[in-house]
Amino acid sequence: MDYSNLEGFIFLDGKLLKWTDAKLHVLSHGLHYASSVFEGERAYGGKIFKELEHTERLIRSANTLGFNIPYGIEEICKIRKDVLEANNITDGYIRPVAWRGSEMMGISAQDNTIHFAVAAWKWPSYFSPEAKLKGIKLNISKWRRPDPTTAPVNTKAAGLYMICTLSKHEAENQGFDDSLMLDYRGYIAEATGANIFFVKNDEIYTPIADCFLDGITRQTVIEIAKKENFKVTETRLKVEDLSQYSECFVTGTAAEVTPVKSINEVQFNPGNVCRLLIEKYTKLTLS
Ligand SMILES: Cc1ncc(COP(=O)(O)O)c(C=O)c1O
Questions:
Q1: CATH code that applies to domain 9-121
Q2: 193 CB under 6 A from ligand 1?
Q3: What is the pTM of this model?
């Protein structure tokens, strides 16, 4: 598998190109200085789940990094639709990405061209199906989510993912599926590409999203849980309290709702709350 060498079509700067022709120059600001933003979206039965929310977040991420994507919301939605159709995808993952180009190659890149691409591929499950069913195993990363005054924490800016890849690689090398990241204060924050929830006495707890992505799936799951009459508390959560919780799960566009089996030596039992939320979330994605 090599994502640069698949069959199909990718939208790049105004054109649908053959997959293998969608290239950028090695001297691109986005590559050297991480001036790049992206989205991760899913299509279910030909329909993008929360399309508007993802499009708005993409535009907001770019604006936070100080640039404008050269397409509006409607144009981006049309491009996405064209890419899905060209690749004959009804159920899959969509990756819009925007980055600064090559005119200036220093820290400053005020007038660089903004490039925009959209790719899509078939992608059934982020974690392996058996891991997803049994629950995933997390370690705790040594890398922490940064202070909001250090980085634009509530964006999908490529630069924020450096610590996620470092954490996930270390977790995988130690036999875990993923890593729980703490925040800069030492409170529980999120996994490397998904938000985290806990259950105690049929009540749901999740960290306050003040220094990491307030995921679209997170917001959706909170809404579903409240509709199902669960009490949902957004609060500061501590590692030393982990053993108080009976269930744990992560949420994200890629992960959907995935039970967590353990965090280091603390075990959880994917139970009724988790099962119900998986069922309701799946139903919503297909509606
Ligand atoms: C670091 C991080 N946190 C949380 C999420 C979940 O966000 P969403 O539910 O919007 O996909 C993602 C995935 O995009 C992510 O990369």
A1: 3.30.470.10
A2: yes
A3: 0.96
